Amino acid sequence: MAGQAASAATAPAPRMKPAAVLELLKPITWFPPMWAFGCGVASAHGGFTQHWPLALLGIVLAGPLVCAMSQAANDWYDRHVDAINEPHRPIPSGRIPGRWGLYIALFWTLLSLIAALPLGAWGFGATIIAVALAWAYSAPPFRLKANGWWGNLACGLAYETLPWVTAAAIMSGGAPDWRVLLVALLYGLGAHGIMTLNDFKAIEGDKRMGVLSLPVQLGAERAGLVACIFMAAPQLLVIGLLFAWNAPWHSAAVALSLLTQLGLMRRMLRDPRALAPWYNGTGVLLYVIGMLISAFALANLTGGPS
C-alpha cells in the first residue's frame, strides 16, 4: 500500500496536448460568426477593397478568437453536464486537466480584446459586448443558457447580428444604414431556432443538471416547431422588406430558399430529436445562403458594390 501511495504521489501530472486545446476551441463552430461578419462586409457601402486588412482581422476575431473563447468558457462551466452527455470531450475526459479549461478561456478573452484594438471604436466596443455575452451565457451568476429562451437569444445576437453590424460599421467608417441594422437583427433572431436545434443532443444531461433548454421545457416535438417558427418568421419579414425596398430579385431568391427550408422542416418535425443534425446540414445551409443574398441586396440599396 505504501508503495502504491508513493508511486501515485510521484506520477507525472497529465500533459495537455495541442490537439485537445484545438478540440476545446471547436473550429467547426467558428463558421457562423465568420460568415455573419462576411455578410456585414458584403452589405456595407465602404467595400472590401478599401478596408480588406480590417476585414480579414475582423473575420479572424469573430471566429478563431471570440467564438473560440466562448466555446472554451462554455465547456468549462458545462463540464458536469458534459460528463453525462459527452464524456469524451476534452475537459470531462481529463485531456484538458485541472483548471486549464478556465485559464484557456481567460487567455483567449484577453487575446480577443487586444486583437480588436486596431478595429476602432466600433470594432473594439462590439468585441467587449461579444465577450460579455459569451461569459454571461455560460458563467454564473447570469448563466443565460440555463433558460433556453434567453440563452438562445444571446447566442443568436452574438453569432449573427453583432458580427454583421460590426463589419458593416468598420467597412463604412461609421454607423451602418438602418436597413442593415434591421436585417442583421432579424437574422440574429432567426438564429434562436438554430440554437434550439443544437440543444436536442443534450436533453438527458440538461434534465439532470437543471438546464432548461427548450427541448427540456417544451418536449422535443414542440421545441422543434418553435425552432422552425423562429427560423422562418424573420426570413419572411426579410423577404417582404427586400421587396418593399425595390430589390425584387433578391427577395425572390430568399423566398425560394425559405420555401425549400419549409419542406425540409416538415421532414425534420417528424422526429426532431433524431433529425436535428440532418437539418443543421441542409436547412441551416440555406438559411445562411439567404443571409448573403440579403447582404448583396443591402449593398445595392446603400450604394455599395453588388
- Principal-axis shape equals globular
Poorly predicted spans: 5-9
Helix percentage range: over 70%
- For the residues shown, what is the average pLDDT? 92
Distance from N terminus to C terminus (CA atoms, Å) equals: 75 Å
Elements, N to C (H/E)? HHHHHHHHHHHHHH
Plain-language structure description:
This protein is an all-alpha fold and 306 residues long. The protein has a single domain (29-301), classed as Farnesyl Diphosphate Synthase, CATH 1.10.600. It has helices at residues 2-10, 18-25, 31-43, 52-77, 79-85, 100-116, 120-138, 148-172, 178-198, 203-209, 214-218, 220-244, 248-268, 272-301.
Layout: helices, strands, pairs:
Layout: H1 2-10, H2 18-25, H3 31-43, H4 52-77, H5 79-85, H6 100-116, H7 120-138, H8 148-172, H9 178-198, H10 203-209, H11 214-218, H12 220-244, H13 248-268, H14 272-301
In short:
By secondary structure, the protein is mainly α. It has one domain (29-301): Orthogonal Bundle (Farnesyl Diphosphate Synthase).
List keywords for this structure.
306 residues; mainly alpha; Farnesyl Diphosphate Synthase
